[in-house]
Specification:
Helices cover about 40% and strands about 5% of the residues. The two termini are about 25 Å apart. It has a single domain, classed as Intergrase catalytic core (hpI Integrase, Chain A), CATH 1.10.443.10. It is mainly alpha-helical and about 150 residues long. The chain contains six helices and three strands. It has a three-stranded antiparallel beta sheet, with no helix packed on it. The radius of gyration is 16 Å and the shape is globular.
Length: about 150
């Protein structure tokens, strides 16, 4: 969710056909009227995905859902909310953790890397640039950054 700026429903709704390990791409189907796009998959993601797909076959998982619960059903957003809240508590974070924080963290991380606002807009699937400027509005860009 962090790496691709996914909303919790986008992650839970991910299907096997959206992840192409051979071409090293992830087809991101944006919700809430966002613009769908294609993202590259990095080496560490490819390795994790391949390991998960082997486990998924071993589980004899039904259907097309990419992420599954322990009951082999599509992962539900409430489960993700619960898990992140528990992980936040376990890490002794002083704020209540929720999945959308990962999407925002993605936007801020891209800005920190010097990615320009228009590219962050495309990456996050924002139709309106005003939804993107929050990530770069207080960020000082260095001359010559992408």
């Amino acid at each position: 969710m962090f790496r691709h700026g996914l909303r919790v429903s986008e992650a839970c709704g991910l299907v096997l056909e959206q992840v192409d390990v051979e071409s090293r791409i992830h087809h991101v189907a944006r919700l809430k009227g966002g613009l769908s796009t294609t993202h590259p998959l990095r080496g560490d993601e490819i390795r994790a995905i391949k390991a998960w797909l082997v486990e998924r076959v071993r589980m004899k998982a039904p259907g097309r859902s990419f992420f599954l619960s322990e009951q082999r059903k599509p992962l539900h957003r409430s489960t993700v909310n619960l898990l992140l809240r528990k992980y936040g508590e376990k890490a002794r974070l002083t704020v209540a953790v929720h999945p959308h924080m990962l999407r925002h963290a993605c936007g801020f991380a891209l800005a920190d890397e010097g990615v320009v606002t228009r590219l962050i807009q495309d990456y996050l699937g924002h139709r309106n640039i005003q939804n993107t400027v929050r990530y770069t509005a207080t960020h000082r860009h260095q001359p010559g950054t992408v």
